[in-house]
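Listing 4. Sequential folding, example run.
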Amino acid sequence: MRLFLAIDLPSSLSEGVAAVQALFEDAGGLRFTDPEQAHVTLKFLGETPPDRVSVVEDAVESAIDAAGVEQFDASVGGLGVFPSLDYIRVVWTGIDDGAVEMTRLHDAFERKTTTIGFDPENHDFSPHVTLARMNDARGKALVRRVVEHEDPNIGSFRVREVRLKKSELGPDGPEYETVSRFSL
């Protein structure tokens, strides 16, 4: 099963996510994420045998303790792209308040999961919510224009837990299911 660690956005912010996605609706080549499944990925684990889930859960508990992060407030807003405005693969909205805590959690998860055999990340961590993936460059000019000129504020929420999630790829995109919850 494909696993990752995430902070889910509450459903109260899904309308705000959808409204920001609407700024890009005329941009061809984009595949939008489901606003109801909006989340911040803290660590992608990838394919994991079911018999290793308990080992992962123990590592996550240990990492949360090591990070020393308690419940915190996070704000979602702004726009950006990965890897650059010249070559757009992902369109995202960022995390302002709460980014420090999310980075501490990510760093702790990175340390603990690599010690149990998972691959380390090959890029710097930047807490964000993916809005869309760019399949081709038809809408690149519009995406650039919106990212450069808009600064949306989606809203804030209280982060109370981290979730271990399973991702199943389907014809309509990925479907996510929570495997475990870890209170902060």
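-- end of first protein; second protein begins --
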Amino acid sequence: MLPHQYTHIFVLGTIFAFCDAFGIGANDVANSFATSVSSGTLSLKQACLIAVFTEFLGALLLGSNTAETIRGGIVKLEYFNGRPDLLMLGMMTSIAGSAAWVIFATSQGWPISSTHSITGAVLGMGVAAFGKDAVTWKWPGVARIVTSWFTSPVIAAVVASILFLTTKYTVLRSENSFRRGLIAIPFYFFLAFFVNLLFIITNGTPGKGGGKLPFGKVAWISALASLGIAIYSYVFYSKWLERKILNNENLRWYHIPVIPFLGHRPMPEVVAGDVENQKAQEEGDLEIAEQGSAKKSIFKKAKDKLFHGVNKDVRNLNNEKLTDIHDRAEKYDDETERLFNFIQVLSACTASFAHGSNDVANAVGPYASIFEIWNNAEIPGAKSPVPIWVLAFGGFGIDCGLVLYGYHIMRALGNNITYTTPSRGFCAELGTSLTVVGASKLGLPVSTTHCITGAMAGVGLCNGDIHAVNWKMYAYCFFSWIMTLPAAGLLSGLFFALIAYSPEKVHV
């Protein structure tokens, strides 16, 4: 094989890698933002806007380690010695099989694991190429990944439960829960920023020169930076929340840096006549909009069709089948829950960052091998660095899938596992981010689907009632996880066999 030979495989691999990343964004969007949207903290449109940045940055800054594990930790690369073209073909069919299954499952509203999908696809390709001996079944191959499937939801459930029980007994059940919540917010700021800064600095930027500082020094730097943010949040942010929620002042987000110097800002009085005039104006605007809808330009119609998913109602609050489960959840002070509305935005960002860092590997790990073989005509090592542009490409694909198609899984999971409030969603998201970012640093491709599902079940059990969790939905999720591995493996294996073992051309 020569460099830049089999360009058609590289081109097809690029297309399938984008499709796989698109499916990952569409399916796993629920893992990062389902709790935020279902609790009412964020609208679906706001969640997508935030995730466009956090998913991309997570993929770019922390996506390299898990990409290396996916690419070289499942199939024994020595079986492909002397046949880089065959490995190139195998990785292409793996991405194709994974993409086909993830997108199909998303269209059906099945919350599957994209980590399961790519693992099964690469495994199926390896078996189709050289038999079962070509797959690394024992540790640190498939066994480590399979172990993470069972340990990650348990760990996330324990971490989220500890966070929520601490919040429940120190803040939510207190007679003066709002005041205690104001004091607790800086601590949560410290925890969230410390964990993420620790892993970002320790991991370093992808490529040469990253991650050279000793861990102890990194911990001190992260702790001091997070302490500064916590102090800032106590002096400025907590005071802003107190005045906005408790005193009902007319404040905007840009007032936070100057809140100690800002005088009292009462909400403007609303006159009954003004309300009627506003209502009439809105009705008139609606009538005008309806009349003008027929005159929309082709561009406007295409835009509305393309982004119709971000306007979907995905909260499931009026679902009669979930009424009993929601009624079993303990309710807390509305003002205190409103307090967690703001802090949950931060936890949603950390969870999304963690998701981007971990799940980008599922698309770009095999694709990085395709690119390197096409470019160098050599089989890359299991620990070869993943190019930054490949990580950025995967992050962009995840963002597209999230915005354009993610509402399917959001609707399937919104308040379906347990009743979600801002305080519960915050603890579940922070517990998930702690679990997934930690796994990303260790190079362990855990499933964010497992983590957030386990975290929500753990928080639901903190109600003290086993029936406060929708175990049917949980079993449904688990069944879809089990189906993913063989389905993606079968598709990938069939694609590979169809191409690699097709009849040779007969020359007459």
